[in-house]
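Escalated from tier 1: iron/sulfur cluster holo job.
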Amino acid sequence: MIETIFFEEQISNHPTTERIRKALPRSTWVPIERYQELFNKRHQNFKLQKKNPALILAKKHENFVLPVPSGFGMDSHKNFYFSHMYNCLYDCKYCFLQGLYSSANFVLFVNYEDFFHSISEKIAEYKGKSLTFFSGYDCDSLAFDKLSGFADHALTFFETFPNVELELRTKSIAINSLLQRKPLDNCIVAFSLSPSEIAKSMDSKAPNINRRINAIKQLAETGWKIGLRFDPLIYTSNWKNLYSSLFEEILNGLNPSMLHSISYGPLRFPKKMYKKAASLHPEQKLFAFPMEETKGIVSYGKKIETEMHDFLKSELNKYTSENKIFQCTI
Amino acid sequence: MSEFKDPKNFAKTQFNFCWVIALRAEAIPIIEAFKMKILDNQSLFPIYANETTGHALIISGIGSIKSAAAATFLKNYLQIKNYTAWINLGIAGFSRDPIGDIYQAVKVVSKESGAVFFPGLRLSKLLPAETLVTVSKPESKYNEPVLYDMEAAGFCELVPSFSCNELTYVIKIVSDTANSSSTLITKNLVRDLIEKQLSKISAVLGQIEILVQEEKRRLSLPDEVEDFEKNFRFTETSKHQFREIYRKWKIMFPTKRLDPSEFLNSQPKDIILQLEKEILINAENWNAL
Ligand code: SF4
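Tier 2 regenerated the structure:
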């Protein structure tokens, strides 16, 4: 349970705030003026804060929808992302959020209606173009959904724009809000996955891979389009066997018509984020590998990346057509 | 000063808890509970410590500025490390009875400057949370549903930079309310109020110590590194590079030890190169899990 909730006074009567107040009546509720008073301040310790994060309820005022960095998503589409939340319930060792923020508290922007307003403006601006909106860039799209109720709002909104895609990216198995409604043709539920052994060691607090695969199959069976995201790819001895077994496990038995796309992306960090993540987990084997640095980006280096790319591509081609597979390069 | 231990001798001491307390009457129960002895009562602020229990304490006097100044003095005097927890404990006014209740201040507001601080991780299983307003003159009206003190804002402004915000705690015990005026506060009452909460305070320290130990593990430099570095002429930059490579090397070869005799006549850059080479060779079959 979340023990402490800081809420901006200006949204204390917002329906989302009320909903959360009803769900967490015994938590301590502390009024604040703006979320920046306590989020991402100097001298905060992400790792310690992660042990008992507070929830901050806030109102977002600007930058609701942003273009995704190039290399993220399918190039044929104009891609945008939005973050109704900062930070995540889970604690993956490679998560870039730990390098991005000094704070592990969750910020939930309760004014979903303003996000949707901005999205409709973008849709109007790019009328006739293939658009995809990604949720889950600065958070996990579904992990917090029981409390936030965001997915339901988002799906109701996107239902009215059948030509525009919404991608919900997640490691969560909190799929009830999806199962309870008719599947949306323009929504992709994209699961981030790693081989079981890797996930066990690195995806702390996230549902294990079997449970994620079950959720995928359940959603596919009820008609939801599925995205598979093998990102970040982790290099370890025996990686080829680990990844091929994972592909077999997921893709055998998954109705191919329900598979929207598969993407994979190598482990990469901006240098500053890598340093910060390594300093938070100095004992982590992930941060002991002799990574290479090119133009401020820390990675396994071209040789390993190419080897992984070639292998993954040829393995994935066994299961699905080439046009459904793409590489994420950020 | 001669009757006291030379502060230089504390450089290696690991204090897990540093207390910054305004009044002697507030400090005595803590000093006694953790068996601290006076180190220096001739300096600006009396300092108490016990190396075995890992506690140090400074009596700051009343006021925000004094609290911040005393904390800085203690940090420098005992060369306190960056994984130590800092606690501002004391009495406070409150809008609600009864006196004697104990709270963790999760939001601290300076009435004077308007600055707001959010110290510590929540310890809600042990202490209820409250907002605290730091005032420059004693509060007698208790109009707002908040705690009132005269130090915490100064403490919170500075102390998170010593370790981190999550190792900075403000704990207050109610000493006066609208129904129990601050004019009734005596030294004995203060001592009594704090003594009665000692078992809760100990439980809180148990929780905080888990965080301290975690940070200690993360930030402490193994003796092996310090001993090794003494044998070579590292510059600040090469020391930094060496430590980063050592960290990786040690994860890859947890049972190996760095032996200076294997690097006789080597320059720091040769040492770094050698470790890098060993890491690279091992990386081919690296098990990252
Ligand atoms: S699920 Fe994603 S956002 Fe959450 S901790 Fe893991 S990598 Fe980060």
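The interface with chain B takes residues 3-4, 6, 28, 30, 32-33, 37-38, 41-45, 47-49, 51-52, 54, 197-198, 200-202, 234-238, 278, 280, 282-290 of chain A (CB under 8 Å).
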